[in-house]
Structures are given as C-alpha cells and as structure tokens.
Amino acid sequence: MAVLLIAEHNNKELRPFTLNAATAASQIDSDVHAVIIGQNSADAAKQLSELPVVKKVLSVEGAHYENFTAENFAPVIVKLAENYSHIVCSANTFGKKKEKKLNLIDLNLEQQELLYQVAEECKVGTILN
Q1: Residue 50 phi/psi, 5° resolution?
Q2: Other beta carbons within 10 Å of 83
Q3: What is the pLDDT of residue 30?
Q4: pLDDT digits over 56-86, tens only?
Q5: Distance between CA 86 and CA 41 in Å, rounded?
Q6: Superfamily designation of domain 3-128
Q7: Eight-class DSSP state of 5
Q8: Taking the model in full, what pTM does it have?
C-alpha cells in the first residue's frame, strides 16, 4: 500500500519541511502519493509533482482550506487515509496540529505511537499510522 504525504505550503510554494517529510515517506515505501490542500495552490502542486520521490499528487482546493486549519484538513485526510498504509507530514507546528486533530477523530490506525516516536527521533516528519 502506498504512503500519503501531506504537503506543507503557503499556497504558492512548498515549505522546506515538506522535502524532509517526503524523504521520510520514501523510506517507508517507494510508492509515495502527496496531497496538497489549499486555495489557488497550483504552483505549489506543480513543485510537489516535480519531487522525484512523489509518484502521484492529489490536489484539494477550496476557499475554506486557505488558512490551513486542522479542522478543515482532517475530513480530507480521514477520507484519504483508508487508501494508504501510512500518513506522513512535517514534524513542526503544521504537522502536530493535524496530528492532534486526527487523534481527536480517532482514526484507529495501528502503531501510530511507535511511528510518531521514530519521527520525533529522526526529526524528519510526523508519521501517522
């Protein structure tokens, strides 16, 4: 099963932490898909598609995604999660807010705590599974 990377961006370009998370995702499985959630984020999506480790880019656009709130992102990630073995995002405030919201929803993904600890030790990305 493929790994899903949640891209961090500012609607115009990717944030550097996304590159770290992409590397972490590719170490789990070579089949890395990335989701970019935002508003008018076509330029950032293009940059994401140019990363060598990313095999597929999913773009989710809407005005309510412009401010990158975890409450708005969570339903998209939950819907996509069923198709992936792991979910990876950056190990910073962006990733941690998404992780906390997903924990509140209780995705019941196995080994989440162990993988989170690995991500923290490596400082490469937050991994949800």
Answers
A1: -85, -5
A2: 11
A3: 95
A4: 999 999 998 887 777 777 788 878 888 888 8
A5: 24
A6: HUPs (3.40.50.620)
A7: E
A8: 0.74
